[in-house]
Amino acid sequence: MTDVKARLSSQARLGILARDISVRLLEISRGGCLLESSSSVPAGTLGALSVEVDGTVYVDQVRVVRCQLLAGAGNTHRVGAEFLSLHLPAENSLRRYAAGLTAGAGPGASQLALRPKLAD
User: Fold this and answer.
1) Does pTM surpass 0.85?
2) Which architecture, in CATH terms, is 16-117?
3) 4 pLDDT exceeds 80?
């Protein structure tokens, strides 16, 4: 075991731990979105959120800002996520999609895949 620790500490190792979480999109704005999931997603989790709307896939980087167990709804969680402004939004970003929505129109309860990435 000591030999393994010595080898790992002598060289930098990089890894990514990811998981897919199915969520429903409840609300969306230019700054973020409200999701519903049967899994808890800790605040501070970074991830790539993708959603398909009318055959087009929209993707953006998000940070979970809150996650609450919905009282009386079994194992249902409400997840608040903010869009991260790491770069200008791409053509297929959720932020651009949200900006193009007219008042009251939206994707409804589309199925999404939240792929959290653990921060260093």
Assistant:
1) no
2) Beta Barrel (2.40)
3) no
